[in-house]
Amino acid sequence: MQTTQDILLTPKAIAEVKNIIAENGLEQDEVFLRIGVKPGGCCGFNYSMGLDTNVGPQDSSYEFDNLKVVLDGQTLFYINGTTIDFKDDEEGKGFIFINPNEKNDCECGHDH
Fold first, then answer.
1. Quick check: 2 pLDDT over 80?
2. Which residues contact 94 (CB under 8 A, 6 or more apart)?
3. Contact 101, 82 (CB under 8 A)
4. Which of 13, 23, 75, 102 has the smallest number of CB atoms closer than 10 Å to its CB?
5. Has residue 5 got a pLDDT over 70?
6. Domain ranges of the chain
7. Higher per-residue pLDDT: 6 or 70
8. pLDDT of residue 6
9. What long-range pairs does 76-80 form, CB within 8 A, spacing at least 24?
10. Which residues are paired to 1 by β-bridges?
11. Exposed / middle / buried, residue 62 (Cβ in 10 Å: 0-12, 13-18, 19+)
12. SS3 state at 34
């Protein structure tokens, strides 16, 4: 388990993941949230989140209010310092990654 918080999940994000675990009939102590990321070209990063039960030797583990979170070393490189939040408003609902490492310097003329 990491002693410093390289990533942060807000209370809203933690609550939503716990709801997803419960809705799927899973036990919180048997699964964890796996976070992944791949560089996405001019649009920034492509993030993934899913429930998993296998921890690999290169994985970093975190815990937020008894919610286990795991990510591999490559992912940590890209999202170190990131805050993950959850929004549910009139514009829709979903997880938001606030990543200081992501640069939106695209000059292709499209809004991303």
1. no
2. 86, 87
3. yes
4. 23
5. no
6. 7-98
7. 70
8. 87
9. 76/6, 76/7, 78/37, 78/39, 78/45, 79/6, 79/7, 79/35, 79/37, 79/45, 79/47, 80/6, 80/7
10. none
11. buried
12. strand
In contact, 101 and 78? CB cutoff 8 Å: yes
User: Quick one: 7-98 is in which CATH superfamily?
Assistant: HesB-like domain (2.60.300.12)
Extract the runs of DSSP E, i.e. beta strands, from 27-81: 32-39, 45-52, 59-64, 67-72
CA dihedral angle for residue 69, residue 70, residue 75, residue 80, rounded to 10 degrees: 50
CA distance 22 to 11: 16
pLDDT digits (tens, 9 = 90+) for 44-103: 788 999 999 999 998 999 999 999 999 998 898 888 999 999 999 998 999 999 988 877
**Cα 63 from Cα 3, distance rounded (Å):** 10
